[in-house]
Input
Amino acid sequence: MKMTIVPTTELTPCLRCPLRRTGAFAGITAEQLAFIQGFKTREVVGATGDLLMREGETTGELYTLLSGWAFRFRMLRDGSRQILNFLLPGDFIGLQEQLGVGSPHGVELLTPARICCFPADQLWELSRVHPDLSYDVTWLAAHEELIVDENLVSVGQRSAQQRVAMLLVHIFKRAESIGLKRADGSVPFPINQQHMADALGLSLVHTNKTLRKLVGAGLHAIREDRLQLLKPDSLNRLADYFALPMRLRPLI
Amino acid sequence: MKMTIVPTTELTPCLRCPLRRTGAFAGITAEQLAFIQGFKTREVVGATGDLLMREGETTGELYTLLSGWAFRFRMLRDGSRQILNFLLPGDFIGLQEQLGVGSPHGVELLTPARICCFPADQLWELSRVHPDLSYDVTWLAAHEELIVDENLVSVGQRSAQQRVAMLLVHIFKRAESIGLKRADGSVPFPINQQHMADALGLSLVHTNKTLRKLVGAGLHAIREDRLQLLKPDSLNRLADYFALPMRLRPLI
DNA sequence: CGCTCGGTTGAAGGAGGTCAACTCCGGTGG
DNA sequence: CCACCGGAGTTGACCTCCTTCAACCGAGCG
Output
């Protein structure tokens, strides 16, 4: 609710982008990198709970999450909230806003975050000068849809246990893929039970009870905002989840 | 299951594309139109129930639904099916397939349909030669995600009555927007109760009972595969649905 | 004529929602 | 220093919305 999102005084140069060093993203030419650098107008930081985007409002910007986690969501009149998907470092944000007037969803930070900002009205300029980057933007849009598809399958067809298992496995995989896994096998997990409930279409109470059941069965553990999968195979089977092999993802 | 999708002997020339005449789509330059015409390699027709895409398989093609309806879906091991979204004339299909190996979802025809086919491996060529068209492809990807978002909100947060109301209103709006509304106020509705159930994450039986309740309240009517909204305002209120104003959509 | 498919309805049971209470923190201010 | 507070997690009791099972109907069709 508060609005502590503020510009930083110094920009992280794309040339030294910490995300690219993870090796989790597709390679890029020096020229492309230079263009992205020029495309980037500012960099902002925000604290947990800050709104990067408000439902119905326009920012005129596109974003890349440089560090930190967030989520896209929509509110209903009765106060209930649906989390559409979680956003991890490297995720591109704001394409939906270009479809009409105002963003159809809000974006809230799950952790302190650092965000690269791009002027939305120059997206077509990007298309013109760097067709390959435009292709990448399309890729990112399709990829996010894939994740939402996955969530919809969960919420529509799976039992509470399966949904929770799916969420844990999916988040773990995504975090792992961008190099967030520690030596002890844990990844950051800044998602509380209310977030999980809102993402899975479950009540808070039932989410809690389901989590306790999985923990009781020794399938996973969450400690100090970090997630460990103790029996990944069991979780995969429970969730009926098979991760399909993906190309190296682009980063704008 | 059967595979009666077959190439047509004669292509519909893009210059005389029946969809563009509806006025539902954004304008386009002659040059762009010519490029699209060249991009299009063939045209196929299929019957109700045909699979345009199979889960996990690769076609190497992108599609535009020229006429007819379809839906994207995913199956789970236990045989349950989640319909991700419905596809209407003008919708672009197949971007997700580009993300990895094989399509992450199936596409099945709801009606006899006519489909324009494009070679997927030349999508980047399109980006290079016509940046504005590339921008349009991104737009279409983001737009489809918006629809999936909408479905996810329904399935995750709304009651059975609200979900059904939402589906009816949403499909009506989409059909209307591409000029499918007749003078009597009805639009085509080739969606049966099993489809609705699979899209909404409800059982067939409960979908039926919910529909009967709405019909009993005089909110809508479905006759001979056509849908009429008798009390659109009541349905909108019930579904907590506010359609946001959209730009004129592109057509590839 | 019989078969299948889509729709309809009733009855019974269960997964998950709601309500309520309690704990365990980490502030924060007297 | 400690009392107070709010947020997150936990647990039990009860209830309801939705699922499941089962049966039946009508239309289209080989």
